[in-house]
Amino acid sequence: MATLEIKDLHADVVTDEGNKPILNGVNLTIRSGETHAIMGPNGSGKSTLSYAIAGHPKYEVTSGEVLLDGENVLEMSVDERARAGLFLAMQYPVEVPGVSMSNFLRSAATAVRGEAPKLRHWVKEVKDEMSQLDISSEFAERSVNEGFSGGEKKRHEILQLALLKPKFAILDETDSGLDVDALRTVSEAVNDYKSNNEVGVMLITHYTRILKHIEPDFVHVFAGGKVVQSGGKELADELEADGYVKYTTEAAV
Ligand code: ADP
Ligand code: MG
Ligand code: MG
User: Is Zinc-finger tagged as a keyword (predicted)?
Assistant: First the structure.
């Protein structure tokens, strides 16, 4: 049983024109086994939250805490965060020309596990997960995300999740750009991972449609750089019906 605690987190995005405050006191606790949906309007800081937790250099935490089982995540390097069990599926996965998917995945697994996975076992593991995600085997030799469609990139993010086996997974709009079939495939892979591992999931999304596949235990409204309302599944239905207006006007004060 693991716990990820975000306490009064404030963070800036670092731009050429200087720092711009985005996170404005985020409080959220996620325990293993729980799925938390984060829903909020464009520009409210959801991706900033995920980057701040993952340790992206363009985001600077100015105050507050992120604790994984009481350990200060903010003092860890990006690699240490991954080894501690944090995983981020990015909203916009980056392309890495010249590095094959298969090399990338093996290096990432080696870094996270602390030793290189045994080759025969690894090859089978990758093959099984790729087939579950309907990823054709030719992708193994292609450069990371280069020329991948939006949906292909998202499938590969979930392939990494399945192989790296984190304790906490942040899925930043993994559903956007997926057609109905891809959404089902990706959701099944996430659910499969959830049922076989004690994982805490932070599922950032705009749409309730993914929540029909991946059932959240909690739903949080994110507006103006913080969590402004928390509830159960019914909150997602309310948001779908009424939008965020009620929350954005409150947060804008
Ligand atoms: P969300 O994921 O909720 O749509 P983001 O965290 O991506 O929101 O962005 C929050 C705010 O920070 C937005 O107003 C966005 O324009 C701004 N922002 C994010 N990254 C940068 C950047 N690199 N330069 C300038 N502004 C940025
Ligand atoms: Mg975003
Ligand atoms: Mg599996």
Answer: no
